[in-house]
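Field reference: sequence -> structure
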Amino acid sequence: MLQPAFPLKQILEQLPSGGLLLTPTNRLRNRCQQVYGTWQQASKNWAPPAVESLQGWLDKLWFQLQQQQWQPAMCRMLNREQRQLLWQRCVEESLDKGLINTQQLAANCDTALSQLIQWRLVENLDEADTTLAHHWERTGLQPADYPLFAILPKFHRELRTHNAITQDQRDLLIARAFAEGVLRKIPRLSLAGFVQNSPLTEHIFTCAAGTIESFDVPEKTHSKLQVARCHSLEDELTQAARWAAEKLQQNPDTSIGIVVNNLGQCRPQVEQIFARVLEPQWLDPAQAAYTLPFNFSAGTPLAKTAVGSATLQLLEMLRDKFDYSQLRNVLFSPFWGDSSTQEQHLRSALFRRLQKLELQEIPGNILRTWAEKLAAELAPESPLPAQLNQLGDWARRWQRAPAEVWAQRFSELLNNLGWPGQRNPDSQEYQQLMLWEQALENFAGLSEFTGAQPLNKALQQLRQIASRTPFQAETRDGPLQILGVLEAGGLAFDHIRLVGFGQQQWPTPPSPNPMLPVLWQKEWKMPRASAERELALAQQLTRDLLNASDDIVVSYACEEDGVGQLLSALFVSDLDVQTKDGDALSSLYQTLTDAPELECISDATLPPLSPEDCAQVRGGAGVLKAQALCPQNAQLRYRLGAETFAEPALGLSAAERGNLIHEMLAAFWQQCTSSDQLAAMTTEQRDQQIRSAIDTAIARLKRKHPELPEAFWQLEQIRLRDIFEQWLPLEQDRPAFTVSQVESELTVTLQGLTFTLRLDRMDTLAEGEELVIDYKTGQPSVADWLQQRVREPQLPLYALVQPQAKAIAFGVVRNGDCKYQGCGELSQPINGIKTVADSQKGSSKQQEPEIIQWDQLKEHWQQALAGLAEEYKTGHAALAFDRPADNENQKALWPLNRWPERQ
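Structure field:
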């Protein structure tokens, strides 16, 4: 069993009646009580030992003073959040809040005042100026150079207004109560595990006890210190976890300490690595949740726990605007709604539908509209639409209110949503739920200090409280303890491993408080004030760590922030240092790396399409295009549904801007159906027709983007008109034509596959010939029709099923570059549409045999497209690219086709 490093039994036996053993942390106090309990007889009643942590002891003394109704103690002690609000209000009243981070400045002010009181420089805030005048004069500094001293009087007035004090002022009153005899003195006060105390803490000890005795960690004689040089922190933690697993395998009852420097900053990484090595099944999603068997001294912020994070995201729905990541998290949260197949199907369909809108931000009304539509079709009994409508109603009605009212509203919202879900929470979730209720209660306690506030401010404050509330899972006592440096003080282990002790990390660099003169902080050796102070603290902590076990391994990363480093010099002064090689598993990995490569067997075939899939091929001509570019990616996209959505952006996406042009031209030619009608229009009629086409196109997209202002759409109208006026001369200069089809659907069957295509436009020319047109806003190439694998199959497909089609063409509609680009066999030539023979001139690859006639080209398309269709139908899925650029343009599929792993 884990033991204290100091002689606990001797200390407790020597304590007189009324004596007390004090420890710096609750963890060490609990360990002392547990060890004491093991000494007692199971059949005998016994009283708990006289052991307290420092903060627990001070809290009890303050409660005792209030119970006695001692007049100076009849006031409220503010918690951290309440002090933060008061400081922030004072900062904003005193300084230009537009130029500073008031939240951080308020926190710095709170820490600075605490240091002034703990170092007994200020005891009465009314006399602060007088008390500090000597120090200003002695150092030649000016109070005006430090904003704290302009803010402090306002903060003191706020404290008097609320009849409140800070925790440090409470400590002053406790010392005064002992000095005045209000609190009875302790015969003997034993201190164990303390490293450095503030002058005020030492003063309290002196006032509280007749006799004070300190116990340090006993010195050990070490024969050696093992040092592990690692590549990175991840490597350090992985080796430490394997080392611990090896020790536990040798002796399951041994005590092991893993002391991680800066544990608070890397706790998630530590937990993940130790779980992966020691409890790999814990990471299995199918595994029932349970608490890890090793203990952490550092907690996780409530806001980052499963319950805390999900609950805050549910409350954020009151903003009535959502981004995709937020909406995905709340829709599929296990703490909202049931897990039935029908409900999950509805939510999946809703999220997929909203993704296809490709909005930068999803307004609440669009979310509710689609939820109602899809629920009526997929899950009529689902409560989701009603819940979303209730949320929307609250978002409109709930305006400014005090914190306690917001707390009631938040509870009502969570109850309405069925939080925390229908399933029974596991042990950790239950503990998090209890801690959430406490955080919400703390938030409600801010009403007196905030007044009425809007939703955004209330959510911000609640999130701050949840972020500062640590969650520490209650775990059974195990042999493995993962601790921070300070938490490890006073404990003894059979084996101890120190992680993260490179020369750049230990001692920690100084970081003086910016609100106090650095000269003062250095002179009085305040926390983080100077390198000398941090060195002295690190030396003492290092001695305690080295005396905590007979088996010690210390590790460090050979590189930190891109700079090489060695082991901290504090570990190599008087010790016999031995280098520890990497563990056995690392050697095994290296052996596997050096082994011969495994034989790779290509498996480039998927099962053939079923008759149902052949009857209606999803994706239209895009399937054949994808098959031409890369067969495997085609199968992934159109058979397995591996779709990607455009990243939301400000304004319109490139695809939406292109669609505007398509719809504008379609609207125009639906009204103007021939070149004769176009020529007969007056200038006014043509302008009116253009305006109408533009308005029709914009109206459809405008409903999708209600967030865009009217000025944006006016700019779009100008852009579209400019492009149309560049395109129209091409139409006017053409031989006579009639627009016979606009945006029409066409069904094509090829090799047993049925495709549904959408035709942009088809013109009937004077001789009865037909010209098929596909609008493009990019940079198409006619050469894509002439390849062995046809890269643009849509227009060739039209040509195959339209007997009178004698030419196909891209209508390139780009600002500054409008033109026709195609090939065919027309009686009357059109600028940009070449003959079949001319379209191959200048090509780097000559066709064999050379294609010079339209019928020959159609035969080539028939064979090439039939081949692509047969490949897709039979499941041909080779990971081969027609051009290297095709791979770069489809990077989103790399996680599935695993292209990078094949290189």
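Note: The chain has a mean pLDDT of 88.
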